[in-house]
Design goal:
Two copies of one chain form a homodimer. By secondary structure, chain A is of the alpha/beta class. Helices cover about 25% and strands about 35% of the residues of chain A. The first copy, chain A, is built from five helices and eleven strands, in the order H-E-E-E-H-E-H-E-E-E-E-H-E-H-E-E. The first copy, chain A, has a six-stranded mixed beta sheet, with helices on both faces. A two-stranded antiparallel sheet of chain A has the order 1-2. In chain A, helix 2 packs across helix 3 (about 60-70). The interface of A and B includes residues 15, 27, 28, 75 and 113 of A.
């Protein structure tokens, strides 16, 4: 997606150690018009997977996921990292290591909103090591649902997430792919396309 | 907003103690089409306040805020509850007591995205005790910004938030107002309008 790529070129910052700062338009501050375009693009790319529900993880997956849900007219479920008091006692819970947080986070979904036989489209902001998305896949499978597609705004192809997801044999789309980032702060960011 | 009111009537659950469960369409699971309608409605009601930025709090404020941002063509900033590694060391931080969490939460905004002289429209899912929104007002004021409007999907008028915000003398709009909830689980939910 050219508009997203240009935005990363203009404003994205390489903080070193593989960390890409995009919090001026993806997380913390959201460019809602850009996210709406991304949602429309995901809807086009996943038009044929027959998804019945979109699944993402709080917090930064929410914006791209809800615009995709709007364009596909599908409900969007975001896995919580802390169980709120409104959730029943029996939940689906999995653990996912978080690279940027330096610790393991919980991903929790209520069985009310993820049911046996559903066809789940996973949308997130990043596909990097794939840990969060693999956690979401595991949650969906535990619920007896089938994952039919995976979409990410930005893929860091050099972190190997796509390879870990290959065995699912489903469409995986990233709107922008980055295949190299210098390890040093302020270093080069190289796009795959 | 009639469609939101009807959805609460159909699916909202009184969990007792003033807690309204709407996690099938507002938080946890999001009805993106309904949130888009809510965003359009906020855009209409706040068309004349000349906002330059929308401010909300993670997590459940994000969906209504990003659709409002899309309809108003404004950037959306969500205050973080934990400082991510992509944020600079110097931040705006305030504390807000959370009724549903039973503890105080931090609200953190980077000075990169909240500047002196901005006109801020605050959008959140609930206006209840007003604590979160007052925290957001304080953040904006600390940054030297001016709050020009406050919008919430659902107001619980019996928790007094609107009175606490009255001294700001700005437009406050809730899309649905609830003026009474029985203290017992499963009890009556009464709408003001």
């Amino acid at each position: 997606m050219q508009s997203l790529k240009e935005r990363i070129q203009q404003e994205g910052q390489n903080l070193g150690g593989g960390i890409l700062k995009v919090d001026g338009f993806v997380n913390h501050q959201v460019d809602a018009v850009l996210m709406d375009q991304a949602g429309a693009e995901f809807a086009k790319r996943f038009a044929d997977v027959n998804a019945s529900r979109i699944l993402t993880a709080e917090i930064s997956g929410i914006a791209p996921a809800v615009f995709t849900g709007m364009h596909m007219n599908l409900p969007v479920v975001y896995a919580r990292k802390h169980k709120p008091i409104t959730m029943p006692d029996q939940v689906f819970l999995t653990l996912a290591p978080s690279h940027t947080k330096g610790r393991t986070v919980e991903l929790i979904v209520s069985p009310e909103y993820l049911a046996h036989g559903e066809k789940v489209l996973i949308i997130d902001d990043f596909l990097a090591s794939g840990n969060t998305i693999i956690g979401l896949v595991r949650l969906a499978q535990t619920a007896g649902a089938q994952v039919v597609g995976i979409g990410a705004l930005i893929e860091k192809t050099f972190e190997g997430g796509r390879e870990k997801l290959a065995s699912l044999d489903i469409p995986i789309h990233a709107l922008v792919s980055i295949d190299h980032m210098d390890q040093d702060e302020g270093g080069d960011i190289r796009f795959a396309d």
